[in-house]
Description:
The chain is α+β, with helices and mostly antiparallel strands. It has helices at residues 3-17, 22-29, 33-46, 66-78, 85-95, 102-111, 180-193, 217-221, 230-237, 252-271, 277-295, 315-318, 384-387, 404-408, 413-438; strands spanning 139-146, 156-163, 169-175, 199-202, 241-244, 321-326, 333-335, 338-342, 355-360, 366-370, 373-379. The longest helix has 26 residues, at 413-438.
Amino acid sequence: MTREELxxxxxxxxxxxxxxxxxxxxxxxGISVRQIIRLKNKxxxxxxxxxxxxxxxxxxxxxxxxxxKDRAAELYTAKYHGSNSCHFAELLQEHEDMELxxxxxxxxxxxxxxxxxxxxxxxxxxxxxxxxAQAGMLWQIDATPYAWLEDRTPAFALHxxxxxxxxxxxxxxxxxxxxxxxYSVVMQQGIAKYGIPLGLYSDRHTIxxxxxxxxxxxxELAGETKPLSNFGKAMAxxxxxHIKAVTPQAKGRVERLWLTLQDRLVIELxxxxxxxxxxxxxxxxxxxxxxxxxxxxxxxxxxxxxxxxHDDVQLDYVFTIRELRxxxxxxxxxxxxxxxxxxxxxxxxxDAKTVVEVRQTLSGEVxxxxxxxxxxxxxxxxxKREQQKKASSAQPRKPAKDHPWKTTYDTNxxxxxxxxxxxxxxxxSQHNHYxxxxx
Length: 439
């Protein structure tokens, strides 16, 4: 019996023996007088066993059978290892048609020795920033390298952007490493689906900010006021306020997103049998949609803060590499070690030495951006003279013995001594001549 039941028996015995009244017993046990009378009657009829709980020693009706426990432990070891208790319970219901609560799953795994009880660490307190009121007011963007396919492929980076107000992942893409192309693809996905956000939060990677502090002459002539990276120029063109965080806690939404995705996305990719980064990119939109349905929250305001993307704005022409170049004679331009010219005759007249901006899209297309217009370029064909192979250099010829180069300088010691003595005689005679003249 429990200590509480033993106390009840002792109090009831005192009441039966006349050492305590029903009111005093009820006050001692903290129950009503009517309940004391019931306990006294059970004690008189059944003895001490009448006070004990009747379900002791019986299996509860809602208890989980041993077969289900063994099945759950087997599935965790074979297919779902590494998933947390909550995610494992969701996977069992989705794929195995087994309805178990996360707490039940945790108890089963702990009893089977498949999971260790985690000791919660006391973390440094950071007061969370309140979410923005409307969707589209602020996005947070970041990338993280991780073994998303475990040991099936080398680790690669996931780029993603999350809306601060709703927690919706607006775009995501896998790339071999953190790069401008990955961030550009994420922004294009989000803008095409939701619209242009008012602000963007990122870290201080050189992808987002230019390491150069001074403007070049071409940038000053182009009217630029501060140096921007190629990604920063795209944000300025779309009128997106770009905020660069100093600490990871400043963009805590996307940092916490990595913890969730690293815990869940790895299991989902394993269950789909994905073995390459290309396959992972193909399955990523469906997995992100599943994530958004489960973890998105409602914003404080139903109004949207997104700016509309106009039909005349092509995102492929915005998220580009940008460099200033000077047009040469014949409207040719050099870029990346290759000469380009206009793909079609341009209605715009360009003077020689006009400074223009050359852009290259993610697909490798090169064009000139001048006065809000795009002029496609093509590689120039090499002339026939340039295509001809250069003549090989002639073999070096050995001069003949009687060649002037060889007869001018004689290596015979006798001749050299003779020439040396004659030279000395001439110099001596000239010295005497000048000496006599001076007298």
